[in-house]
Write a structure and sequence with these properties.
The protein is mainly α. The protein is built from 32 helices and seven strands. The chain has four domains: 236 residues, no CATH class; 195 residues, Rossmann fold; 90 residues, no CATH class; 129 residues. Helix content is 56%, strand content 5%. It has a five-stranded parallel sheet, sandwiched between helices. It has a two-stranded antiparallel ribbon with strand order 1-2. α27 packs across α30. The longest helix has 43 residues. The N terminus is likely disordered.
Length: 779
């Protein structure tokens, strides 16, 4: 509530005039002379020369930007230089800008034609032309704003008459029209090229002011609380902090890693094709009664593993983020729960809400008062209520891009089919300005679902001319081995040979460069170069990566080294089977429980040599995961990896045992050392710091996922010896630590996962003949 004394601050209004109020120009405030209701247009005229000069400067900056478009990076879009005091009153907008629009139209038509020549010029012009469209829309809106000012003027006259009576009321007040003008500020919205509901808000303001004026006229104890609340509610709608935090969100899924984008000067053809598609206009409606030509608002980029699809996705995301046109980006990672299909649409929706306040407001209006809807895992409901309906009234100048990488990795084949079907069926219902850029391997069920659909465009990596790809890979290899470092024996000819051996697979070139720059112990860079070229010569492309991985691993773990091979499989099993990647510290802590007492190695002993294949092997705070999905696929397939095969099912069983060991060893009462157990988590200001200090990542992981690992391992059978060990570990867990486990789950966000975890454990224990423990858990 606003103090009643503030009502006395309402400036006196003489009949037929408005108080002196600031004028808003591109976000700044400056005092302007009083405005009389009888002559709103009587404000000082703005010299046409100043506007022309400003426009000339803006166009000159644009021309200068267009001249420098040879580089693959997008230029920064020059802002329109119209932020000087052009607009002193609202009504002067239309009077001043209408003649300008008529003069600018021929220039706009010319620029539209010229921009087709260069894709980057087209992007620049789409933004600038959007500004011109925003001006036209605003000119049409001026009459409504003038109507609003008249309502406000009339209200303030009444308020002035009853000023003394108002002082004694404890009600909110409206101090000036500034709050309202800020919401419809012409320059602010033009610069933002915004998504807007301005007309609806102006009408709401007019209705609220009229109702408030009637309430003042009737006096009736000046009971204005409800009407004033209506006005303030309209003003403050955009300032409401819509709490969408209970919607699923995938942290780390954004395509924002510059190191993973295409190297400057490479992949220009496909990037320009995709950029032109994003920037294309929807087809004009037909003049006859024929059905309109569908707009292709989805582009699916298909390519085999290792061809560089993800790098292109990163480049597209970063390119349009620079332009302020990236609504969201999302990269799937196979077998990673928070990077699966269930998180896709909620993550995109929350990113879009951050992208624009009006989208956030529309999303909140749809799901804000329905917890079940905000937390649903139904893909159909997610798409309709998180994207389709909040965006259905979207009006925007220029495109909004959503990038989705590795669709084939969103889950199992059933999950992929389900998600692909939703995208194919419902994406046509999105506004034409929203474009979906999707990458995927050429999985049959994906290609069959997307092919032949009128609003979907398909591009294929194998359609890129081989000589273009070979040139790009050669450029990449030279940048890694010649420009970034000097390596004896590696020159232009060697780089060309490596590019030729890669058979257009960027992933092969990436791993080869890392192996040559940091060869295994006992080999020189030149020796490693020759070994890789030899192993890749004469190999079919679909087996080239397998030969590369076998060569890299064979140099580290020879076939006759059974001890080293067993350790490799043990450690890599933990890395590949985790539902959520852990850092080197966490993997060491889990894997240590699986090592025999007489063994003196740890997981880091194995992982430190795998930097060309895994991330985070030399860092303590970077999660360890395969750098490319093809390496995971290679190790998990016995026919492909042979001696290096990693049994994922057995790894799940081992992680379940390791998790029980960790919990039995590290769970304690009041683990976070809280002063009281009668306080809600949300009321503990330093809870997150306590979690980071007292609950290490490997313990948190064990508490959340032990039962899932046990559940997945059970269908393949648990041998008698390991079954006995798990049974003993689980008995101790139930007898001594189950309450401490529930405490940790509560601190981490809720005990609801405990029910499914215990149900899974009871089922598995019953399956292997441990009926007593199973009954205890069930009870």
């Amino acid at each position: 509530m606003v103090a009643p004394e503030s009502l006395s601050a309402v400036p006196a209004v003489t009949a037929g005039s408005l108080p002196v109020t600031p004028s808003i120009v591109a976000g700044s405030l400056s005092a302007t002379p009083p405005i009389t209701t009888g002559s709103l247009s009587a404000t000082p005229a703005v010299a046409a020369g100043s506007l022309s000069a400003t426009t000339a400067v803006a166009l000159a900056e644009t021309a200068k930007a267009l001249e420098s478009l040879s580089a693959p990076h997008l230029p920064k879009i020059p802002t329109m230089g119209l932020s000087n005091p052009v607009v002193d009153t609202v009504r002067s907008f239309g009077e001043l800008l209408t003649p300008l629009l008529e003069k600018v139209k021929p220039f706009c038509d010319l620029m539209t034609a010229i921009s087709k020549v260069h894709p980057y010029a087209q992007i620049v012009w789409s933004i600038l032309d959007g500004v011109r469209s925003a001006i036209q829309n605003q000119v049409a809106r001026d009459s409504n704003i003038c109507k609003l000012l008249e309502k406000m003027t009339s209200l303030y006259a009444v308020v002035n008459e009853h000023k003394e009576q108002i002082k004694s009321l404890k009600v909110p007040t409206i101090k000036s029209p500034i709050e309202f003008l800020q919401r419809v500020c012409f320059m602010q919205r033009m610069a933002k090229s915004a998504i807007s509901k301005v007309d609806a808000r102006i009408n709401a303001y007019c209705d609220a002011f009229e109702s408030l004026k009637q309430s003042f006229y009737e006096v009736r104890q000046l009971n204005t609380d409800l009407v004033v609340a209506r006005v303030l509610d309209v003003v403050q709608r955009s300032a409401i902090k819509a709490d969408l935090s209970d919607m699923l969100y995938s942290k780390g899924s954004a395509m924002d890693d510059e190191d993973k984008a295409c190297l400057d000067g490479t992949r220009t053809g496909i990037l320009n094709t995709a950029t032109n598609w994003v920037n294309s206009d929807p087809p004009d409606p037909p003049e006859s009664s024929e059905s309109p030509e569908p707009h292709q608002n989805v582009l699916l980029l298909i390519g085999e593993a290792g061809t560089g699809k993800s790098a292109i996705a990163h480049s597209m995301a970063q390119r349009f983020k620079t332009l302020g046109r990236l609504g969201s980006s999302y990269g799937f990672v196979r077998n990673t729960p928070n990077r699966d299909y269930k998180h896709l649409f909620p993550t995109i929706a929350r990113n879009m809400a951050d992208f624009d306040e009006d989208i956030k407001e529309a999303l909140w209006e749809k799901v804000g008062h329905d917890t079940a809807l905000r937390t649903t895992e139904s893909l159909k409901q997610q798409f309709e209520n998180f994207l389709q309906k909040p965006l259905e009234n979207l009006t925007v100048s220029g495109p909004i891009l959503i990038v989705i990488d590795a669709l084939d990795e969103c889950g199992n084949s059933s999950d992929v089919r389900k998600l692909a079907s939703i995208i194919v069926t419902h994406s046509r219902k999105l506004p034409s300005c929203v474009r979906l850029f999707i990458t995927s391997r050429p999985e049959k069920h994906i290609v069959n679902g997307f092919e032949g659909v009128s609003h979907i465009r398909i591009e294929r990596m194998d359609a890129i001319p081989d000589d273009f790809t070979l040139k790009d890979i050669n450029t990449f290899i030279q940048s890694r081995l010649m420009e970034n470092m000097q390596i004896d024996g590696i020159g232009i000819e060697q780089c060309k040979k490596l590019a030729s051996t890669s058979q257009n697979l960027f992933q092969w070139a990436f791993v080869a460069c890392k192996e040559i720059a940091e060869p295994p112990i006992g080999r020189t860079p030149d020796e490693q170069y020759r070994k890789l070229v030899q192993s890749g010569s004469g190999v079919a492309q679909d087996r080239l990566l397998d030969y590369l991985y076998s060569e890299v691993l064979g140099a580290l773990f020879p076939e006759n080294d059974t001890v080293g091979m067993d350790r490799f499989k043990s450690v890599l099993g933990v890395v590949l089977a985790l539902f959520e990647p852990l850092t080197l510290t966490g993997i060491k802590a889990l894997h240590t429980t699986l090592i025999r007492p007489d063994e003196v190695y740890n997981a880091g002993t194995i992982l430190q040599y795998l930097g060309s294949l895994l991330s985070g092997v030399m860092d303590t705070d970077v999660p360890i995961r395969p750098l490319h999905t093809s390496f995971r696929d290679f190790l998990a397939d016995l026919k492909r990896s042979k001696d290096f095969f990693v049994d994922i099912a057995d790894a799940h069983q081992r992680i379940a045992r390791a998790s029980l060991c960790v919990m039995n060893a590290e769970l304690v009462f009041n683990i976070c050392k809280l002063e009281s157990s009668y306080v809600f988590n949300k009321e503990i200001p330093d809870l997150q710091k306590r979690i980071e200090k007292y609950i290490p990542h490997h313990l948190s992981y064990s508490c959340r996922f032990w039962a899932r690992h046990l559940d997945i391992a059970s269908p393949v059978g648990i041998n008698t010896f390991l079954d006995h060990r798990i049974r003993e570990l689980f008995k101790k867990f139930v007898d001594e630590n189950i309450l401490f486990w529930l405490e940790v789950l509560s601190i981490l966000g809720g005990v609801s996962p405990a029910f499914s975890a215990l149900a899974n454990a009871a089922r598995v224990l019953k399956l292997v003949g441990t009926r007593r423990l199973s009954n205890v858990i069930s009870d």
